[in-house]
Design goal:
Elements: H1 17-49, H2 54-66, H3 79-95, H4 104-148, H5 157-211, H6 216-257, E1 281-289, E2 295-305, E3 308-312, E4 320-324, E5 329-335, E6 338-345, E7 352-356, H7 360-376, H8 383-398, H9 402-407, H10 435-440, H11 462-470, E8 497-509, H12 517-533, E9 539-546, E10 549-553, E11 560-565, E12 569-574, E13 581-591, E14 597-606, H13 610-671, H14 688-707
Antiparallel strand pairs: 1-2, 1-7, 2-3, 3-4, 5-6, 6-7, 8-9, 8-14, 9-10, 10-11, 12-13, 13-14
Helix pairs in contact: 1-2, 1-4, 1-5, 2-3, 3-5, 4-5, 5-6, 13-14
Protein name: DCC-interacting protein 13-alpha
InterPro entries: AH/BAR_dom_sf, BAR_dom, DP13A/B, DP13A_BAR, PH-like_dom_sf, PH_domain, PH_DP13A/B, PTB/PI_dom
Subcellular location: Cell projection, Ruffle; Cytoplasmic vesicle, Phagosome; Early endosome membrane; Nucleus
C-alpha cells in the first residue's frame, strides 16, 4: 500500500502554528474516522444481533463500503487502493445478502471483537491523549507567562530558579505528551486499515465456513482475493510495528537531544549565538499600547519573509505583516522591567515595535538577523540601480505588469490572418492607450466602442425605452421583453433555489457567444481597466439561482437589483486560474438600430467556487428545459383527449339521429297499413285525432326524408 501521511515528531518542541494547523487536519481526520467507524460498527452490530434481518444488515454494510470513496478524509492518500479493495468486499457481501442466519459466536470472535477493540481502545486512547496534551499546553503557556514577567531589577534567585524549573518541567511534559499524541495519531492511520479490513475478513471467513458456500465458483472466485487481503493486513501490521519501533526510538533520541532546549535561557557556552542568519522564526512577546501609559504583551509566532517581519497567532491560517524591515534600525532596549527586549524602528521613524525574546541568545539572534536583512538589499546596488528600480515600480503601479498580460495570454483566440486592432472609443482610458492594452483588444469577441460598466445598471434597450416613453411614464421597462405585471414574484414551488454571495466587477457588450473565450476576454479587459484606474470598489449582492431566472438581491434591503430570465443566459463559465471569478453572457430582448440583439457579458467574483455557480445555472436550465418539455407533452395530451372527446360526441349525435330516423320510419310503416274488418263484420273507424296523428306522422316522415 502507499505511504502513510505522518505528523512530524521532530517539530513538536518548536510547536509552531504550522505544526498546530497540521495537527488540526489529523484531528479532523480522526473525527471523520470515528464517525465512519461508528456507522460501520452499527451495521455489523445489526448483523450480529438480528439473524432474521441479516439480509438487510448485510446490504447496509455493502452500501457503506461502496460509499467509502465518497467520504471526505483530510488524510486520504491511499483512498484509491482502499476504495478498490472495499469495492471488492462490497460485491461479495452483496452476493451473501440472501443468507438469513449467521453463527453468532463466529461473528462475535471474528468480526465484532476487532472493531470493538478499535473503538473502545484506540479511539478512546487518542481522545484521552488529546485532553492530556491540551492540559500540558495550557500549563506550559502559564509557566512561560510567569517566566516572562520575571523582574530584571529585583532579581530573586530562589524565585527565578523556581520559575525556570517550572518552565523546564512544563515544557518537558508538553514535549513528551505531544510526541506520544503525534505517534498515536500516526499509528491511527495503520490501525484504521487494520480495523477496517480485519473485521471484514473475519466476516467473510465466518460466512463461508458456516453456510457451506464452498461451491467451486464461489471458492475459486474469492478465496484468492481473501488470501491477498489477509496478506495485506499482515503487511500493514508489520509495517505498523516497524514504524512504531522507529517512532519510539525517534522520541527517545529527541528527548535526549532536546534536554538543553527545555531551559528558556540556556547557558551561551552550551548553545552559541549565530549572528549570520538571514531568516529566523520563533515566539516573541509584542508590546501593544492600550492607553497613554498602559500596555499589554501578547505572545505570537514571528518570522521573517523577504524584507518583511510577519506574525501569526495560533489558529490563524496565515501570517500578517507587522512592518517592513528594509533599511530599518534595531537595538536592545529596557521596557517595563522586562528582560531581553529589543525595538525595531522603520527607516522613516514613523513606526516602531518593541518585542521580547525568551532568552538572551534569541534576543541577540533576532537583532543580528534583522540587521542582516535590513542591509542585504542595498549591499550590491549602486544609486543608479536603486533609482531605476524605483522608477520601474512607479511605472508598474500605473500600467499592467507583464505577468498580468501573460496570465491572460491563453484567453486570446488566434489572431493570424487579420491585423491587430485596438478599441478606439474606450471610456475607461484616460488619454492614449498603452501598447499592451491595444494588443489585448479583440474586436472579434468584444464589441468596439463599448464602455465598461463598473456599477450594476439594467441593460434597457432602445426599443423598450421608446415604448416606455410613448406608453406609461415613470415605469421601468423590462429589458428582456417580459410584461411587468404578469409575474411580480417567482413561483414558490420552484425545484431549485440556490443563493451565492457575489461581487460585481463589471459588464461589457460582446459580439460572439459561441465559446467561453468571450467571457475570458471580458474578464481580462475588466480586470486590466480596474488595475489601471485603481478601481477597487465592488458591489456585493446575493445571486439567487432558480428554474425561472437569476436574481441579484441587495443583501441589506432584500430588494431585487437585477433579474435575468434563465432563457436569456446563453453562456456561463469560470476563470481558468482564479476559480472565484465567473461570468455569464445575456442576450436581451431589445435591439439596436440594425435590429441585432444586444449581448452583454457580466463578470463577478464569488466567495465560492465559480464552477459551482456555473453548474447551478446549467442545472437550472436543464430543469427548466425538462419542465417545458413536460408542459408541452401535457398540453399535447390534453388536446388529443379533447379531440377524442369531440369525436365521441359527434359519433354519439350521429347514432342518435339514426335511431330517431329508424323510430320515425317504424311509425310511418305502422300508420300506412290498410284497415282490417272486425270479427262481427263491421269496420274499424279511425277517430279524428288518430287520423290527425297519422297525417302528422306522414308529414314528419316526408320531412325527414327530404332532410336526409
Amino acid at each position: 500500500m502507499p505511504g502513510i501521511d505522518k505528523l512530524p515528531i521532530e517539530e513538536t518542541l518548536e510547536d509552531s502554528p504550522q505544526t498546530r494547523s497540521l495537527l488540526g487536519v489529523f484531528e479532523e481526520d480522526t473525527a471523520a474516522i470515528s464517525s465512519y467507524f461508528s456507522q460501520l460498527f452499527k451495521a455489523m452490530q445489526r448483523i450480529y444481533d438480528a439473524q432474521n434481518e441479516l439480509s438487510a444488515a448485510t446490504h447496509l454494510t455493502s452500501k457503506l463500503l461502496k460509499d467509502y470513496e465518497k467520504q471526505r478524509f483530510p488524510l486520504g492518500g491511499d483512498d484509491e487502493v482502499m476504495s478498490s479493495t472495499l469495492q471488492q468486499f462490497s460485491k461479495v457481501i452483496d452476493e451473501l445478502s440472501s443468507c438469513h442466519a449467521v453463527l453468532s459466536t463466529q461473528l462475535a470472535d471474528a468480526m465484532m471483537f476487532p472493531i470493538t477493540q478499535f473503538q473502545e481502545r484506540d479511539l478512546k486512547e487518542i481522545a484521552i491523549l488529546k485532553e492530556v496534551f491540551q492540559i500540558a499546553s495550557d500549563d506550559h503557556d502559564t509557566a512561560i507567562n510567569r517566566y516572562s514577567r520575571l523582574s530584571k531589577r529585583k532579581e530573586n534567585e530562589k524565585v527565578k530558579n523556581e520559575v525556570m524549573e517550572d518552565v523546564y518541567t512544563s515544557r518537558k511534559k508538553q514535549h513528551e505528551t505531544i510526541m506520544h499524541y503525534f505517534a498515536s495519531l500516526n499509528m491511527l492511520q495503520y490501525k484504521k486499515k487494520i480495523a477496517l479490513l480485519e473485521p471484514l475478513l473475519g466476516y467473510m471467513q465466518a460466512q463461508i465456513s458456516f453456510f457451506k458456500l464452498g461451491s467451486e465458483n464461489l471458492t475459486q472466485q474469492w478465496e484468492e482475493f481473501l488470501t491477498n487481503i489477509g496478506t495485506s493486513v499482515q503487511n500493514v501490521r508489520r509495517e505498523m510495528d516497524s514504524d512504531a519501533d522507529a517512532t519510539e526510538q525517534t522520541i527517545q533520541d529527541l528527548k535526549v537531544a532536546s534536554d538543553l532546549l527545555y531551559m528558556p535561557d540556556p547557558d551561551p557556552s552550551d548553545i552559541p549565538v549565530n549572528r549570520n542568519l538571514t531568516r529566523k522564526a520563533g515566539y516573541l512577546n509584542i508590546r501593544n499600547k492600550t492607553g497613554l501609559v498602559s500596555s499589554t504583551w501578547d505572545r505570537q509566532y514571528f518570522f521573517t519573509q523577504g524584507g518583511n517581519l510577519m506574525s501569526q497567532s495560533r489558529g490563524d491560517v496565515a501570517g500578517g505583516l507587522v512592518m517592513d524591515i528594509d533599511n530599518c534600525s534595531v537595538m536592545a532596549v529596557d521596557c517595563e522591567d522586562r528582560r531581553f527586549c529589543f525595538q525595531i524602528t522603520a527607516f522613516d521613524g514613523k513606526k516602531a515595535v518593541i518585542l521580547q525574546a525568551e532568552s538572551r541568545k534569541d534576543c541577540e539572534e533576532w537583532i543580528a538577523t534583522i540587521n542582516n536583512i535590513s542591509k542585504r538589499i542595498y549591499l550590491s546596488e549602486n544609486p543608479e540601480e536603486i533609482a531605476a528600480r524605483v522608477n520601474q515600480s512607479a511605472l508598474e503601479a500605473v500600467t499592467p505588469s507583464p505577468s498580468f498580460q501573460q496570465r491572460h495570454e491563453s484567453f486570446r483566440p488566434s489572431t493570424q490572418g487579420r491585423p491587430k486592432t485596438a478599441r478606439s472609443g474606450s471610456q475607461c482610458s484616460a488619454g492614449s492607450e498603452s501598447p499592451a492594452l491595444s494588443s489585448l483588444s479583440l474586436d472579434s469577441l468584444v464589441a468596439p466602442d463599448t464602455p465598461i460598466q463598473f456599477d450594476i445598471i439594467s441593460p434597457v434597450s432602445e426599443e423598450h425605452t421608446s415604448q416606455a416613453k410613448s406608453g406609461t411614464q415613470g415605469r421601468r421597462t423590462n429589458p428582456f421583453g417580459e410584461s411587468g405585471g404578469s409575474k411580480s414574484e417567482e413561483s414558490e414551488d420552484s425545484i431549485l433555489h440556490q443563493l451565492f454571495i457575489v461581487r460585481f466587477l463589471g459588464s461589457m457588450e460582446v459580439k460572439a457567444t459561441e465559446s467561453a473565450d468571450v467571457i475570458y476576454e471580458t474578464m481580462r479587459q475588466i480586470l486590466a481597466a480596474r488595475a489601471i484606474h485603481n478601481i477597487f470598489r465592488m458591489t456585493e449582492s446575493h445571486l439567487l439561482v432558480t428554474c425561472e431566472c437569476l436574481k441579484l438581491i441587495d443583501p441589506q434591503t432584500q430588494v431585487t437589483r437585477l433579474r435575468f430570465p434563465l432563457s436569456s443566459v446563453v453562456l456561463c463559465a469560470s476563470h481558468q486560474e482564479n476559480k472565484r471569478l465567473f461570468g455569464f453572457v445575456l442576450k436581451t430582448a431589445g435591439g439596436r438600430v440594425d435590429g441585432r440583439p444586444v449581448t452583454v457579458c457580466y463578470v463577478f467574483e464569488s466567495n465560492n467556487d465559480g464552477e459551482k455557480i456555473c453548474d447551478s445555472v446549467g442545472l437550472a436550465k436543464q430543469i427548466a428545459l425538462h419542465s417545458e418539455m413536460d408542459r408541452k407533452a401535457t398540453q399535447k395530451q390534453k388536446e388529443m383527449d379533447k379531440a377524442k372527446e369531440k369525436q365521441q360526441e359527434e359519433l354519439h349525435k350521429q347514432k342518435q339521429i339514426e335511431k330517431d330516423l329508424e323510430e320515425q320510419s317504424r311509425l310511418i310503416a305502422a300508420s300506412s297499413r290498410p284497415s282490417q274488418p272486425a270479427a262481427d263484420g263491421q269496420f274499424l273507424v279511425l277517430s279524428n285525432s288518430q287520423s290527425e296523428d297519422s297525417d302528422a306522422g306522414e308529414e314528419g316522415q316526408k320531412k325527414g326524408e327530404s332532410e336526409a
